[in-house]
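Standup notes
- DV: blocked on the single-chain target, sequence here:
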Amino acid sequence: MRSKLADLLRQALNTHSRNTKRPYQAGVATLTASDVWGKLDQGQQNGLLSQVELAAPIKPDVSSDTALLSDLDLRNLAARKAEKDAVAGRVADALKLAAQLLEPKIRFVAVEKPRCGHLTKSGSGRKRQEKKLLAALADGPVQVA
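- DV (later): unblocked, structure below
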């Protein structure tokens, strides 16, 4: 029974490890493709990655039952899933910080997301958005969030 449970845990950790690589690689590709990110030197990029806690996933050690348990003691499956789910947000945070580093006066302006076409059907929604963005632009550079 213990052996079967250990095998199931190994399988879960290995599956999770493979599934975690994809979002991380996609996040790195997003950063690499960004003009803003490309303007930073390697030291600035590494500093921002550390600040947002975006790091390459580490393959778990499942070589023995003891190593398996040690690895799970460090980070359980739920914590590993949360880390995987946080990658996109960490990438967005890194890009936001990069923009602020390059343009310290930049302000981030949130715009309403269209719901059921209410911004497109009604001119008032578009006008409200336009007014908000123009007011923000009057104070300096903006990035739409």
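- Follow-up: Residues 2-104 form one domain.
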